TrEMBL record, chains A, B, C:
Tree of life domain: Bacteria
Organism this protein belongs to: Zavarzinia compransoris
Keyword rRNA processing tagged: no
Keywords, ordered alphabetically: 2Fe-2S, Iron, Iron-sulfur, Metal-binding, Methyltransferase, Oxidoreductase, Transferase
InterPro entries, A to Z: Cholesterol_7-desaturase, Rieske_2Fe-2S, Rieske_2Fe-2S_sf, VanA_C_cat
Protein name per Swiss-Prot or TrEMBL: Vanillate O-demethylase oxygenase
SUPFAM superfamilies: Bet v1-like, ISP domain
Keyword Iron-sulfur part of the UniProt annotation: yes
Domain Rieske: 7-109
Entry-linked Pfam families: Rieske, VanA_C
GO molecular function: 2 iron, 2 sulfur cluster binding; metal ion binding; methyltransferase activity; oxidoreductase activity
GO BP, one annotated term: methylation
Cross-referenced CDD domains: RHO_alpha_C_DMO-like
Length: 342, 342, 342
């Protein structure tokens, strides 16, 4: 149920300060992460090849990590370079090392064939370190199959219901966006015109507005959206004209821990020029909204887990959800048969 | 392990105020319950037919309920009557609806073939709303196979041991009741003569007493008992003569959540004319006693679960237990082969 | 994965005061333990033969125990001697009784063929009740396969790493002990010369020391060590000469609850003549150190459980670990084929 040949987010950069070793589990595989002396991130199998002790309990020595059970030392490539008490290192003593890239304040780990780990495949996003945007990062654990969260992102009709307290907007359920299939995902765009502000902003925005939402969901699990709010009636031609009142980016990644859990990394922010209060409000709003998603999706997952073969009835809003599921199933099947997914 | 064609208690009526949706699981099936505008109880499958979201997170609209994931609306029969954003409702869009009856302050749900849901099959009981009796309702979750609780109710020799602190009475283990097989259960009756009061009442009853216990256990899981206490030696002919000091009813239902858990709904009460203090005492006594049962039965269930094939040695007190088990096995087998249980 | 024909520690003697019934699980089997009137320990199956109620909820009557569900009474041999309400005890009404011995303040239970329960097979140890030694007992639950704890004890190179804060001593990982195979285990002995004191004692011992460690690990799970510290350079011939600064015993037993958990019983102490402060310090040190082991071994076990077939790479320090594993596998295989393990 997982695409392997892709970049997964293993955390925000601030999760991994120099000198610290952290544990992560991605698509069921245990990882230990730490930084080399040059700051680069090492991601290795969190299981010593000797007696399977967890390497995240290890200690960093220069660019290497030492297992703190019996002292075997591994270099960033995963090769064992020292066995205390014996001169010779067994030739097969090694742990798996995973390619990593740090970009846009996310630590990306390639879980598949290392030879195919191309940083060009990392999706575009805007991180909390961006000079112009005040992105506020956060994360939540969902007790659910990660694909249910991807589904959720591909059908914004749920804003009307799940997020009636935070976002609201009856129009989301009664209109349809433009859906475009991309090479590795879906692009979804829509105008929502002459509506009240999102609920969590109505204490400061009491008028009528046009909103433009434009997002991509890329395999396996990255969501990036530009969301703009205009004075109603002014953005007649498209998102680049009109009286722009609020301009935001939100970047999100839904990372499968295993078949039953996922970590949701997300940020939302406005331009720094808009002042901190705007981004404070967005950060609070998205966190509340994602708690609403968490309750609904965890309940949905519990139902599916209890009765995995029960039939689902399709509706029109499922269009993008279904296309993305097919894309992912093709990619997973292609990896299994040894044929490249791209 | 469950009889389907029968009425199960889904809760006390006060568990379901108007405007609220509650979740229940009975014989492994998830239910969402709410009230129609006329107060009648709707019980439907707690799983939207679209993407399996839990309907107990939904919102009531008139007599209908709307799934708050993507907004599908269902009427009390479970039929989908609206899909936001599309004109046509898919013809098979529906969730299962279960027959319900509210009686004696219990909400009853029929888990089997709806065509056979005959309210006449609901057992007699006396509810907290009774004009003459001061019945005090309560409930407990047991981490055990519900049949172990039914067993427990069919053999009161355990009062001497499990309930030595609350009920006591050495005589229960050393005498036998009259056992009568009913069409759908067992009736058990006994006189216990010239004994001290039950332990939890001895601070106000220090004499010697005759007690009369007369109860029925009906498939799958209802227990109703009339319990009377007389001045010792006065009730020579039967429960209708003698110097009646305490007259009570207790109504109980043991509802399987699934194979491993059950909810125990119970009440005990005296006539209102006896004053509140009497029923206060009964309510406290039964709750303490059922905590004693819970500890014992959960320990028993843990043993059985760890070693389900270990042999049991029968004793004379098992007579009613064994007969009831056979009745239930026949009913379950009859349902499976499509032959009516009655 | 368990040797059956051996003595397992079921607890410290103070865990079982007269009149109390306690529950234990050893190699997956539930036991109820209590004391006869003469103080001797009875260990019986914690499952009544009637309806499988837990006997640890029972009550002691003289030398017998009564199941407090329906009152069946069992003598110390496990034979049912009374069924309340019937004259005849069913001939097969009995629970299993396990041989016990109390020695060195440990309660030992024989989990295998009772006919082979020879008290001579109980390993030597020194208990908290010893007249000369101030042994301080304690225990910890490990969520791990007990064999991983045995492995840990057979390779003290881990002192350098796991216990770097408490014990430390770089030399443990870089030197090797003398290993001798015993009939039912391993003996391991070593000198560590001209080193600082163990870390947790350095606030009172700032010099250089020679240390002598001499321990046996006996199947399935007993560890007994004499540990001595001398002024560096004085103990030239062996542990019996030299300027002895600290003389200690530690006795430990790792008892499998089931395949996934074990209870670690342990003590450490100095001669009473050395004063209480010394043994206070040892008790605190060993507890801290075993918390360090617990974290590492539980992490190791989680890795093994998640991926039981992953390969392990052997190193030189595994010598005693491997020999002990082979000894245990032979003993287990011999029991299965009906051939004596000894």
């Amino acid at each position: 149920m997982f695409v392997r040949n892709c970049w997964y987010v293993a955390g925000w950069d601030y999760d991994l300060p120099p000198g610290k070793v952290i544990a992560r589990k991605i698509i069921g595989e245990p990882l230990a992460l730490y930084r080399r002396q040059d700051g680069g991130v090492v991601a290795i199998e969190d299981r010593c090849c000797h007696r399977h002790a967890p390497l995240h309990l290890g200690e960093i020595e220069g660019d290497c990590i030492r297992c703190m059970y019996h002292g075997m030392k591994f270099d960033p490539s995963g090769r064992c370079v020292e066995v205390p008490g014996q001169d010779r290192v067994p030739p097969r003593a090694a742990v798996r090392s995973y390619p990593t890239v740090e970009r846009d304040n996310w630590i990306w780990v390639w879980m598949g064939d290392a030879a195919r780990a191309d940083p060009e495949l990392i999706p575009f996003s805007i991180g909390p370190g961006d000079p112009d945007w005040d992105m506020r990062p956060n994360s939540l654990l969902f007790n659910a199959d990660y694909r249910l969260v991807i589904d959720n992102l591909l059908d914004f009709s749920h804003l009307t219901y799940v997020h009636r307290k935070t976002f609201g907007g009856d129009i989301f359920a009664y209109t349809k966006p433009e859906i475009t299939r991309l090479e590795r995902g879906m692009r979804i765009e829509r105008w929502v015109r002459n509506v009240p502000a999102l609920n969590f902003t109505q204490h400061i925005m009491q008028g009528r507005y046009d909103m433009h939402l434009d997002y991509s969901v890329l395999m396996p699990c990255v969501f990036v959206m530009r969301f703009k709010v205009f004075t109603a009636g002014t953005a007649v031609e498209g998102p680049s004209d009109g009286e722009l009142l609020l301009d935001t980016w939100t970047c999100q990644s839904v990372v499968p821990v295993n078949a039953e859990q996922c970590v949701y990394y997300f940020s939302w922010g406005a331009p720094k020029a808009a002042g901190q209060e705007t981004s404070n409000l967005l950060a609070k709003g998205i966190y509340q909204a994602f708690l609403e998603d968490k309750e609904m999706i965890e309940g949905q997952y519990a139902n599916i887990k209890a009765n995995p073969d029960a039939r689902m009835i399709g509706i029109a809003h499922d269009a993008a959800v279904n296309q993305m599921r097919i894309l992912m199933e093709h990619a997973i099947a292609a990896e299994k048969t040894g044929i490249a997914a791209e």
